[in-house]
Amino acid sequence: xxxATGPGVGLIPMVxxxxxxxxxxxxxxxxxxxxxxxxxxxxxxxxxPEGRALRGxxxxxxxxxxxxxxxxxxxxxxxxxxxxxxxxxxxxxRLSDVAVRGGRELPFHxxxxxxxxxxxxxxxxxxxxAVRVRxxxxxxxxxxxxxxxxxxxxxxxxxxxEQWTRFRDTLSRLPxxxxxxxxxHVANSAAALRRRGFGCELVRPGIFLYGGxxxxxAIPNPVVSLRSRVVLARDVEPGTVLGYGAxxxxxxxxxxxxxxxxxxxxxxxxxxTGGGMVVIRxxxxxxIGRISMDLTVVDLTDVxxxxxxxxxxxxxxxxxxxxxxxxxxxxxxxISYEILxxxxxxxxxxxxxxxxxxxxxxxxxxxxxxxxxxx
Length: 375
Ligand SMILES: *Cc1c(COP(=O)(O)O)cnc(C)c1O
Description:
By secondary structure, the protein is α/β, with parallel strands linked by helices. 27% of the residues lie in helices and 24% in strands. It has helices spanning 2-5, 16-20, 24-34, 48-56, 74-79, 89-102, 126-136, 158-173, 189-195, 270-273, 325-331, 336-342, and strands at 10-11, 42-45, 62-65, 83-86, 106-113, 121-122, 140-146, 183-185, 202-203, 224-236, 241-242, 248-249, 254-259, 277-280, 283-288, 296-299, 311-318, 321-323, 349-351, 364-367. The strands form 4 sheets. Strands 2, 3, 4, 5, 6, 7 and 8 form a 7-stranded parallel sheet that branches. Pyridoxal-5'-phosphate binds next to helix 9.
């Protein structure tokens, strides 16, 4: 991402939703040890409790909170020195009240809605709200201005260009002297890697850091592996029925392997109907029947030597075979973000310590219940 943005641009890696399900604390530790001081400008979360959890874990750097927050939580944000991203003049006033009462100057950023529609002040009314935001900002410091793209991962970047044009229009409507004091950020992973050339001070990558594609031509190295184990392997007679709803029936003598992982761990049921596979002993084998909460069954007939104790790779590389995060997401009819954030707390996260980010094996390894592992 840094290579794409050029020198002098700071990163706000998005670690919301527990760093897309991978664990915000270890991810922030890895970022802090792998990046230089000027490179890691801050980190982004969605909610105040997420920010406070990072503070509690000892992260002293900047934390930006990117969703509109309930009034009642503003005081907590101030207490934990979180930087709020605001979408209304009223919100600036309320933050201001808290700051004045607390006697501490608080920084904030303003979101501009250039087409995403869910938050932010309207881009075409900037001449009006910018003046009012500045007036309302007592005891608080207007530090940044940003927008968010809705389609930067699409093949066609025209919608992104249009949003960028609107953002520049916003800048041109600001009262004179204001822009110079503001840090600008617009790019998510896809925009930073594919559209480039915004010339803003900061970028906000997310999915690409976690091994998800940021569009058809922005494919990262694998970062996450998801593995389970065969806990039972059996030969079954033709006609043997499998799983809830009895949706699968053995057509021949088959060998079935039961994996100690299910939708309760975050493997969506839709993976089975989407033609999902896992890699065992370097070979792809199909998931059969319905995925249940704790167990998933695969057809091992073509890998007869497979047995209980074997590792089953749901996402990741094993031997010559690999299943990418995006393949799994596509088979489930969803996006990599939802697969990652759906990985449940029951899955132990194993981190590869001390390896360089360039190591293709990446930092995170997620395994199903270790007590079921035989070695
Ligand atoms: C999640 C998020 C990002 C990161 O988006 P990716 O597509 O994961 O790179 C950037 N900015 C904001 C405001 C976000 O909410």
